[in-house]
Structures are given as structure tokens and as C-alpha cells.
Design goal:
Number of strands: 13
Largest sheet: 5 strands, parallel
CATH architecture of the largest domain: 2-Layer Sandwich
Number of domains: 2
CATH class of the largest domain: Alpha Beta
Radius of gyration: 19 Å
Helix content: 25-40%
Structural class: alpha/beta
Strand content: 25-35%
Order of helices and strands: EHEHEHEHEHEEHEHEEHEEE
Number of helices: 8
Distance between the termini: 53 Å
Shape: elongated
CATH topology of the largest domain: Methyltransferase, Cobalt-precorrin-4 Transmethylase, Domain 2
């Protein structure tokens, strides 16, 4: 039976890729993905056939991978981070529909919430919410409501896709919403180019974060909850073990 692997490759460094992901990519004939993600694995797995589509052509990318698998090739569709968290796994299932061919095998990866948190310290030790600020597929009004609810619920918050050339003000707009419910001195962190060349971390208060222009599309933003503090140069959200 033909198989299509949907592979989360983590943040970009091979050291942060799972063993299952490494095995799947090593065994496949064709690796399909967005060009940036394909380039992250091209040197690691030489001799493969590499195919890519640009941004906004996600459906075409999934159809290509499905058809190649139906032709009998061993195919891996790669996604940055985790294949099911803002990845292609769901879209592959939608496009394949009720057809059982090819068999879809989803291989999880290390999403930016996990890898970015590790870079910053331990900001997600308690309950947290993950919200994308990209309004390409989700109406901004819906994003605003989710930000309001997460802030009111007292969650630590992780923001994916915080800013880009096409939406440079989205993070500032989000911070303005959060500041209605969260004090301006709340610790925040930014993880940039996680696991790649140029990796760095930065710390802000929420008020400072709302005013910065240093956040870009390669960043993941972390906003602490009411217990989050800076300890030893790291952003830490206690869970309460010491109080038990």
C-alpha cells in the first residue's frame, strides 16, 4: 500500500529532529515542501528528489505529494515544527478525503512553542494558549477574540506569526488588546530563528514589547502569566511544586 509521510522537522537543526522523522526522510524517494523547509533538509539527505511550491500554494503542495505517493513513490511532505500544529497534516486529510490511498502517516515534530520556550528558559511550565497572528486564513476579529479570552483566562500565551512585511503592526495591535487585561510589567520573551543560524533570544515587559520594532516573521513571542518571573537570566513560569 502506498504511504505518504507528513513529517515535522522541528525548528531546523537536525539535533532537534525526532528519530522517527530522520528515519522517514532517510527512507523516502521524494521530499516535498515549502522551499524554505526543503532547503533545511536538502544537505542532510542528499540523493533525494526535492519538489517545492511557494507560500500560498499549500493545497497544490499536498496534491503533488498525494499523487506522487499514489504512483508508488515513497514520499515525505515536510513541515517546519510539528506537522499537525499549523502544519500540512490536516490539509492532506482534507484533500485525500475518504479515499484510503495513500495511507497517511503523521510524524510529529518539535513545535516552536516547545523549542522557543527551551531557548528562553521555562515559560510554559503551566497552562498556556497558542495563537497565530496571521489573518491570511483566520479573520482578525476571531484572532482578537482569542487574545481576549486567553488574557482573561490567565494563560501564558505563545504568539506564532507575530509580524511580517505584509502585516507589520499585528503584534502591536495584539499587545494593545492584551494590555487591557495584563499589566505592562508582565515578563515576555522573543525567540528568533530557533535552531538556525542567527538564533537569539530577547526579553521585554509587555509594555516594551508593544513598542518594539525588532520582531519579525522568524520570531515566536512568549507572554507570561501572573506568576511568570525572570530567574537567573531565564523566563520562568512556576507550576507550584515548591508550595506542595
Amino acid at each position: 500500500m502506498s504511504e505518504l509521510y507528513i513529517v515535522g522537522i522541528g525548528p531546523g537543526d537536525r539535533d532537534d529532529m525526532t528519530i522517527r522523522a530522520d528515519r522517514a526522510l532517510g527512507a523516502c524517494d521524494v521530499i516535498v515542501g515549502y522551499g524554505v523547509y526543503v532547503d533545511l533538509v536538502r544537505d542532510i539527505y542528499p540523493g533525494k528528489e526535492y519538489l517545492s511550491t511557494p507560500m500560498t500554494r499549500e493545497a497544490d503542495r499536498c496534491r503533488m505529494a498525494i499523487e506522487l505517493a499514489r504512483e508508488g513513490k515513497k514520499v515525505a511532505l515536510v513541515c517546519s515544527g510539528d506537522s499537525g500544529i499549523y502544519g500540512m497534516a490536516g490539509l492532506v486529510y482534507e484533500i485525500r478525503g475518504e479515499d484510503k490511498t495513500p495511507e497517511v502517516i503523521v510524524i510529529p515534530g518539535l513545535t516552536a512553542a516547545c523549542s522557543g520556550a527551551a531557548l528562553l528558559g521555562a515559560p510554559l511550565t503551566h497552562d498556556f494558549a497558542v495563537i497565530s497572528l496571521s489573518d491570511r486564513l483566520t479573520p482578525w476579529e476571531t484572532i482578537e477574540k482569542r487574545l481576549e479570552c486567553a488574557a482573561e483566562g490567565g494563560f501564558s500565551i505563545v504568539l506564532y506569526n507575530p509580524a511580517s512585511h505584509g502585516r507589520p503592526e499585528h503584534l502591536k495591535k495584539a499587545c494593545k488588546i492584551l494590555l487591557k487585561h495584563i499589566p505592562g510589567d508582565r515578563p515576555c520573551g522573543v525567540a528568533e530563528k530557533i535552531g538556525r543560524e542567527g538564533e537569539k533570544r530577547s526579553f521585554f515587559t509587555l509594555k516594551e514589547l508593544s513598542e518594539t520594532d525588532s520582531v519579525n516573521m522568524f520570531c515566536t513571542v512568549f507572554i507570561g502569566n501572573g506568576a511568570t518571573k525572570m530567574i537567573g537570566g531565564g523566563m520562568v513560569t512556576p507550576r507550584g511544586y515548591r508550595d506542595v
